[in-house]
Every structure is written in structure tokens, then in C-alpha cells.
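To the wet lab folks,

You asked to see what we're planning to order before we commit. Fair enough. Below is the target structure as C-alpha cells, and below that is the sequence we designed to fit it. If anything looks off to you, flag it before the synthesis order goes out.
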């Protein structure tokens, strides 16, 4: 298993739309394992493939963040087929470090997806899982939670993001 490199806002690649997965093979299994590894390393509760520079419709979720296999959700080619109610929490994103903001979402969602074997299943979710599913599926369509904020808030964050990028590059150089 290995930890993958994340893309960070304002990297334009994060706004790219991902394509459907058509082959359910060993490579897909390995990618999903590495995505979980990366997500846990970064202390996230969800990760979408485009965040690690892979433009395929794959998401991994573990809202408990306890690394228990029974809580790990893998959704390939996920699609929201029903939405209900209104909810919203302060969201964050591994690709948008240092920012949390309230986003309006549906309270309940039903998502149709495929598992690692290519079998179709449905998840009915509410609470944090419902919000996480909407956030991660947005990533597959090239949408980040920051895109819902006002241009003024986005610009403020861009300044912060530039500083964070600089700090990350410096750290990477020092680690070499
Ligand atoms: Ni995210």
C-alpha cells in the first residue's frame, strides 16, 4: 500500500470531470486500497479519485474514521438517484486545506453505485454520510465545496492557499 499525492485547490485538474470505470480488476483494487491509505493518513472521512490525480469515478468513505472494514464504503460510478430534505454542516476538504464552510445539501440521499466486483448496489443515507456522499460525488463532476462560496470568500482563500502551497513545497524540499 502507498500514500498518494493529493491535488490542492486552485489546481485546475480538480475541476475536471471524471470518466466511468469500466474494468473491475486488480489495478482498481490496488487503487482503492491506496486511496483508503491516503485518506486515513490525511485524517479525512472521504476521498475521490480526482483528488489523487486519477480521473475515474471512484470514491472511498469512512465517516467513523476508525479503519474498521465494516465501515469502509467503496463506490464505483456512484449516482444520486433520490434526494430529500435540507441539511448542512461546516464542510472541509483534503484538497482545500485550512478552510471550513457551511454548505447547503440534501438531508437524505439514495445513491446507486457499483462495488469492486462491478455489482450494483444502493445506499440510503442521512446525517454525515449523506453529506459526505454529496461532497465526494461532486468531486467526480469537477465541483469543490469552495465553488459554492461567494467569489469574495474564494479570493480570500486563494491568498491563504498560496501561502500553504509555498509552505508545503518548502517542507518537501527540506525532507529530501
Ligand atoms: Ni473533498
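Sequence we intend to order:
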Amino acid at each position: 500500500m502507498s500514500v498518494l499525492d493529493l491535488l490542492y485547490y486552485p489546481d485546475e485538474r480538480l475541476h475536471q470531470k471524471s470518466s466511468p470505470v469500466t474494468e473491475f480488476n486488480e489495478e482498481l483494487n490496488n487503487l482503492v486500497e491506496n486511496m483508503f491509505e491516503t485518506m486515513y493518513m490525511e485524517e479525512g472521512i472521504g476521498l475521490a479519485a480526482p483528488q489523487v490525480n486519477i480521473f475515474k469515478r471512484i470514491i472511498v468513505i469512512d465517516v467513523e474514521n476508525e479503519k474498521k472494514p465494516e465501515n469502509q464504503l467503496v463506490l464505483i460510478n456512484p449516482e444520486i438517484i433520490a434526494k430529500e430534505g435540507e441539511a448542512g454542516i461546516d464542510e472541509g476538504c483534503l484538497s482545500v486545506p485550512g478552510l471550513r464552510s457551511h454548505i447547503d445539501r440534501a438531508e437524505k440521499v439514495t445513491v446507486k453505485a457499483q462495488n469492486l466486483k462491478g455489482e450494483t448496489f444502493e445506499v440510503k443515507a442521512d446525517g454525515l454520510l449523506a453529506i459526505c456522499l454529496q461532497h465526494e460525488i461532486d468531486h467526480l463532476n469537477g465541483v469543490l465545496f469552495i465553488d459554492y462560496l461567494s467569489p469574495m470568500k474564494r479570493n480570500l482563500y486563494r491568498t491563504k492557499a498560496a501561502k500553504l502551497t509555498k509552505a508545503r513545497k518548502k517542507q518537501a524540499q527540506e525532507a529530501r
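Structural context that might help your review: Residues 93-95, 135, 139 surround nickel (II) ion (CB under 6 Å). The chain has a mean pLDDT of 96.

Thanks,
Computational group
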